[in-house]
Amino acid sequence: QQEEWKKLVHETTKTKDDAHVILGANIGNPGDVTGVVNNGGEAVGLYRTEFLYMGRDKLPTEDEQFDAYKEVLVKMENKPVVIRTLDIGGDKKLSYLPLPEEMNPFLGFRAIRLCLERQDIFRTQLRALLRASAYGKLRIMFPMIATIDEFRQAKAILLEEQEKLVAAGTKVSDDLQVGMMMEIPAAAVLADRFAKEADFFSIGTNDLIQYTMAADRMNQHVSYLYQPCNPSILRLVSNIIDAAHKEGHWAGMCGEMAGDATAIPLLLALGLDEFSMSATSILPARSQLLKLSKEDLAKHKEAFLNLDTAEEVLDYVKTKMI
Ligand code: PEP
Ligand code: MG
To answer: Can you tell me where the transmembrane regions are (predicted)?
Structure first.
């Protein structure tokens, strides 16, 4: 199997019926790009920038961030790179940025909520991103968007920084996309409205499942509720993908579910355009996708979306779709 996978490093990911899907990787550091390239990644589907801020005693400067973002874009040689703005709070804390103690950190002051409040931190990161955009195919992504208003505010701040940079003669890419994580049920339900504002969606199933099932993703006692293939989750995913397509946008997934061999046929059937996973999952996923027919699988969509339980869905996939 390993040998079979290795032969696929330079192949594009085309299904049996010639549908192209993009297989990307999730990274935490510029150094991870080597693994992405060696495993045949067609994109970076999620760069979690919080690692740039962690394990140190002060905020990273604009130049430090610029260097990191530029390195990833250059090493990816004009393949798409989705960089997510700071997603701190929840389980991720910074020693030099004291935040209020919270009863429910995962429902609290984190990610875009914090960035819209601490605009000094946010604007520094956006400037670094905009400057780096000249070196590749950058897609900027905002995390934990719950309302249209949050997305508009974040985008307006980005455009302000962009205007300032351009006025000062700094080159900014004219092929920049601005999208959002789909990881809060409120946004997933309202995806048709968000699709009028955002250039793309990336579905963060790690959080989307936790918030939809109201089950802490770290708590073992409720881990039985963590069901990627529950029809409720699949309907949200389907709604998000359809909404993106209706506006001519692409939809990806960067949560763990995207690299799950059982979920892949379902996601292909729902029309997912980009799958982002850990680099080592890319070749096995490509090998699987080359043998699947998107058109054939799509015929099962209505059937599996109308099952009652995750168990029934898993059973359906295994007997009819793999
Ligand atoms: C997610 O929520 O699915 C996701 C990709 O983001 P993170 O795991 O960093 O919260
Ligand atoms: Mg998340």
So the answer is: none
